[in-house]
Structure prediction request, 676 residues.
Amino acid sequence: MTQSSPRTLFAKLWDDHLIQAESESTPAVLYVDLHLVHEVTSPQAFSVLRERRLEVRRPDRTLATMDHSTPTTPRGADRRVPIIDLKARAQLAQLERNCADFGVPLYALDNEHQGIVHVIGPELGLTQPGMTIVCGDSHTSTHGAFGALAFGIGTSEVAHVLATQCLLQRRARTMEVRMDGVLAPGITAKDLILRLIAEIGVGGATGHVLEYSGSAIQAMSMEERMTVCNMSIEAGARAGMIAPDDTTYEYLAGRPYAPQDAHWDRALARWRTFAADPGSAHDRTVVLDASSIKPMITYGTNPGMGIAVDAPVPTPSHLSDASERRALEKALQYMALTPGESLLGKSVDVVFLGSCTNSRISDLRLAAGVMRGQRVASTVRMLVVPGSQEVKRQAEAEGLDEIFRAAGAEWREAGCSMCIAMNGDELRAGQYAVSTSNRNFEGRQGKGGRTFLASPLTAAATAIAGTIADARTYVRGR
Amino acid sequence: MEPFVTLRTTAVVLPLENVDTDQIIPARFLKTTDRLGLGNDLFADWRYDVSGAPRPEFVLNRPEAKAAQLLVAGRNFGCGSSREHAPWALLGYGFRAVVSSEFADIFRNNALGNGLLPVALPEAAVERVAALIAAHADSKFTIDLASTTFALPSGERFDFPVDPFARHCMLQGVDQLGYLAAKEPEISAFERARAGAY
Prediction:
């Protein structure tokens, strides 16, 4: 494709970061603007650097934080988060040592900027339009909400980027996801993305970068756009992207790492060029009518197994594809659900509000709005886990923590918490949870635990009811 | 990285689609700072019961699985998390290759970078392979990376796609970092040319 033909947003960012174009025999060499690092997928990468006597090439383009194996239990009298798990403690200590040895800035547990890597990047203004952003974490797709090309990488690639600030990449195909229409009251960005994944499946976007467009996307706040882009990977997409607009620029203005003064004007002029050219072609297009979306919930063991909250659980014998039928049978067996049953009214044991999908201030505000003056059902344990210490401070300034506490929910420290169940927060075998996180894989939230993925509104409504609830009943008339 | 040239092996079948990396290696095993030692935890929650004893019905616990270096699975293998612990665990167990009709993008990259060969075959071919193993657990398959072919016991062969660069690295047993590090002059020139853009 020549420079003069209309280009997609992805194509512009790809071209802009190309050090060496791909050929039949070699992948492209792509420059990385921002590399985010956490404790779980980086230790072996730093080991590679040590073995080969390599430096971190650009510590100034690298930032580390602690989130995955980090406990979210409230701080002790010494203001420190107690780390009981010896392996987690060793892993966190290793990250501190690696960052100190290689000069990588680290927001450790005692730092005011610590938090989930995909929450702090945007809130600090590190995530900016037009950038390439990578992290050893599949939910790096979150940052695409800013018109960045952002994707998850493995640990070997973490070593590549630490050492060279580059990656070897084959160019992805692109899929336009057009979402027009207005979301009904009680319906959130989470419902929209769950609906898309239910429609195209967990492998539906493999090999593609998604470019989201349409009036429903344009009407969204940055935090809602992050929720959408975050779960692009759950459809198998390499990345998800949204062209930057005034909503993006307003969000970024004044943030600690955003350009200031004259730099801001120059950046803004550049950012405005990051939109798909009229007439640019995508390899595929999917269209979704946002106004038809109902509250979505998953019933199975992958994020594509989602239905409207008032729809019956699917019946395996209705599926013609043998492989899909087998998968559905296995999922329903794991979830202990009956074909055709309604999820509404089903008892749950735990409600988890948090994760890089839904732990930002707007998510907490949504849930608090439903829970103000209400009580969490006595049969339910609810965890509210802010995505970052900044989110936590903001929520406390607004009194949201008091609403959650008064309702009987646990107000915790920032981290990945029960989304990944490697930090002490987990389901027990057989327990049901409504969770605002992104994955309902078997055992994802604890061995034998059963996850229903849903929006913060559905989570809050369910916590109060004690059973899976229709969020629309809780927001009507408010 | 050990070179991968040819592999002749028996295989085990996991007849499931969308096998995610949380199943391949559950997150609680990711608190390690090493890449070795994950083989015992491969498919841990399917492989062991609550007491930690092997579940006899799970395919990896069958006697014929011991020598198998090839795993055959349903479509979209390796979806979900980017954890490279997934190929480390598969290699740690003793697998050298995985056959599926489709691999998740990050998993495929991670596998190739560690010398675990993802062999993508048409769905019908994967089904035939699974049927052959169901009929004869000792069926042997031959993978030749130089010619990118997968051969059934009968000698019938299927071509499979592999990125030529990844194939080169696997055949030689070299990882990709050396190639990238040699691009230093181009990387520096690129940085100079766009200084101040970010």
About this structure: The two ends of chain B are 36 Å apart (CA to CA). The first strand of chain B starts at residue 6 and ends at 9. Strands of chain B lie at 6-9, 11-14, 70-73, 97-100, 117-120, 141-144, 149-151, 157-159.
